[in-house]
User: Fold this.
Amino acid sequence: MAHHIKRGSALLAILLASVSLTACGAGERLGQLNPFQGEETDDPNAPAASQRISILELQDRISAADATNQPVILPTAYTNDRWPMADGYPTHALQHTQASGNLSRLWRVDVGTGSSRGERMNARPVLLDNVIYTLDAVGRLSARNAETGAELWVHRFEGPNDNDRYSFGGAIAADSGRIFAHAGYNYFVALDASTGEELWRAQAITPFHTAPTVFNGVVYVGTDDNELLALDANTGDIMWNHRGIEETARLLTTPSPAVAGEVLVVPYTSGELYALRAQNGTPLWSDSLTRAGGLTPMSSINDIAGSPVIMGDQVYAMSHSGILAAFDITSGEQIWTQPAGGLNAPWVAGDYLFLVTTEAQVVAFERMTGAIRWISQLDVYEKPNKRKDRIAWAGPILAGNRLILAGSNGDLVFVNPTDGTVMETRDLGEAVYIAPIVANETVYVLTDEAHLIALR
Assistant:
């Protein structure tokens, strides 16, 4: 049985992976780093967290002093009956989803093997036609009844060698009676959504990395070496490809391309953001969300670890190193920027954009101007006096007038989207690194121990 990572060393979930799989054998991993290694201390004489100066405070950063603290007005909530891709819809803009209940536990099931030192829970669940699909840390993809949690079928990904994994994690998407998925190996499959039977398989030179986005009969998915492939959803044939700058240092997240109409927006681990013509991959414009002068190896990683979001005629994207920007989708003109970095996709609803930063700040921005409405500080460490056991926050999602975030400390936090106040904190009892999803007024949380929890 795999040895599970304790919560205290939990940020293996946000590992830096220095990987060059095109130049080395399948099992060779050139290095992994805990991004917060060195910040923690057991020194009893160490100053309290309140007396320390954050690395980010030595650089530009967002500040509560910049917030107007004017209330946010949300659009009317609607009930979405699906969450077919890692970031919801192809645009990644879900607005204000409904969840009218108090989010009590409906059921909790074991969906496989959780994270260990050799494997990672990385795939966000997807839901379509009242079936929820999950992928565990060892490549077990399962389909379950979304109302009861009852298992319907299982598909197992087999690596080139049981003890020789190409990469961590994987990702899933559902569309038109098919499941599109990879488990971090160098092949990608389409499965029959009713049976789990494999329909086709596509190969790549290096392992697949990003979550797939499916739109108009095309599957867009990226590899470890920053190559985007456009696959025919019916056959798996490669229609076209696009390459970003290869960047071996990346974060173990699975962002996905965003698409609206004829424009596909692709994030790369190099910090590059490309807008391509969805039909043939022709570049329309590009920008770089890189930030120079990082004072630690972690702060200098420019990976766009969270997915970009398209809303109307604007694109929103954020790099880990600390740039949040809005772009005109047609011209690529930069409309505004803010010094905010994070690991999750921003959530856009109406005139506002919500996100959580690497410094555990939940922030509401005005979508059109970038002005800050409010900032709410969540816990940064489980042991703040010793600056130990840093907490990773996943989310937010907006469901039933609540911003919902899950933490590596096992907490589920509800934040008031109007003013940023913390409404409630619940103890799930297990670390969570994957952002929750919501469909049919039910919130689903996948823990690092491979338990799927339904709340309604």
